[in-house]
Design brief:
- By secondary structure, this protein is α/β, with parallel strands linked by helices.
- The chain has two domains: about 1-175, HUPs (Rossmann fold, 3-Layer(aba) Sandwich), CATH 3.40.50.620; about 190-275, Pantoate-beta-alanine ligase, C-terminal domain (Pantoate--beta-alanine Ligase, Chain: A,domain 2, 2-Layer Sandwich), CATH 3.30.1300.
- It has helices at about 5-20, 35-45, 75-85, 95-100, 120, 125-140, 155-165, 195-200, 205-215, 220-235, and strands spanning about 1-5, 25-30, 50-55, 90, 145-150, 170-175, 240-245, 260-270, 270-280.
- It has a six-stranded parallel beta sheet with strand order 1-4-3-2-5-6, with helices on both faces.
- α6 (about 125-140) crosses α7 and α9 packs antiparallel against α10 (about 220-235).
- The radius of gyration is 19 Å and the shape is globular.
- About 40% of the residues are buried.
- Bound molecules: pantoate.
- Pantoate binds near residues 28, 30 and 134.
């Protein structure tokens, strides 16, 4: 595996692959890789010939009181996991390479409407930071395909909208959430949980599953489903930011005629803010 830290080096390697008519698949990450990330590289295999992963903890997507400084950074372990997963090129830039004029002064990309709801309401500016860094990474890597986990469902929706609005040539692919055996979605932030909190955490997936079961059984009182999910989580010791039934394509609140559903939650447990969702089609 090639390991580079400059934009110029990424462009040299990718340009050679494009000249050889090879399809380049890109997996952007913030590092501290786990089996969920490895599954993205595995999904990448179905879409191209060469695999590029970036490892960059993006300051622009963290709020002033969030965990940017403490976000787990494990570069040596990440490099080994990427190499073992068959990645061809790892791009691990420093902040100055991505934001030469500083992140605070950088040109930004705003994806209106869907960036300030759900997680965006509780993390102002977060999706602007995500859209900006992902657009920059797309310009640097110039991939044919990029893979994002469905666990970050709102992020995936924002990126799809940005790609459509900016007429970018990259194809966006969502990959299914990878879960622990008890249902907890894999996340680098799970390591913030204490042993006791870790035992409680699968309640998130259980409550989402119960909400989906109610929808599948024909319940269309969305407020009732949301209220029950929130009350169950808060009663178990979480502090729930939102528990919401939405249209999976637009992220607008679900309506009686909605067919593509997504039930999403963000809930805080101790120092961790956990997000998860389940999508389903009502046919
Ligand atoms: O999902 C992530 O890890 C990040 O939000 C991403 C897409 C790599 C942008 O920094």
């Amino acid at each position: 595996m090639l390991s580079v830290s400059t934009i110029a080096d990424v462009r040299t390697h990718v340009a050679r692959w494009h000249e050889q008519k090879q399809r380049v698949v890109f997996v952007p990450t913030m590092g501290n890789l786990h089996a969920g990330h490895v599954s993205l590289i595995e999904a990448a295999r179905q879409h191209g010939d060469r695999f590029v992963a970036s490892i960059f903890v993006n300051p622009m997507q963290f709020g002033p009181n969030e965990d940017f400084a403490h976000y787990p950074r494990t570069p040596a372990q990440d490099a080994k996991m990427l190499e073992d997963a068959g990645c061809d090129l790892m791009f691990m830039p420093d902040v100055g390479e991505i934001y030469p004029n500083g992140a605070a002064q950088a040109t930004r990309i705003e994806v209106p409407g869907i960036s300030n709801i759900l997680c965006g309401e509780f993390r102002p500016g977060h999706f602007e930071g995500v859209a900006t860094v992902v657009a920059k990474l797309f310009h640097i890597v110039d991939p044919d395909v990029a893979i994002f986990g469905e666990k970050d469902f709102q992020q995936l929706t924002v990126i799809r909208r940005m790609v459509a609005d900016l007429c970018l040539r990259v194809e966006i692919v969502g990959a299914p959430t990878v879960r622990e055996s008890d249902g907890l979605a894999m996340s680098s932030r799970n390591q913030y949980l204490s042993t006791e909190e870790r035992k409680l955490a699968p309640a998130i997936h259980r409550q989402l599953s119960q909400a989906v079961a109610a929808l599948k059984a024909g319940e269309r009182d969305f407020g009732k489903i949301e209220g029950m999910g929130r009350a169950a989580l808060d009663g178990a010791g979480f502090r729930t930011d939102y528990f919401s039934v939405r249209d999976a394509r637009s992220l607008a609140p679900a309506r009686p005629d909605t067919r593509q559903f997504v039930v999403l939650t963000a809930s805080r447990l101790g120092k961790a803010r956990l997000i998860d969702n389940i999508q389903f089609s009502a046919g």
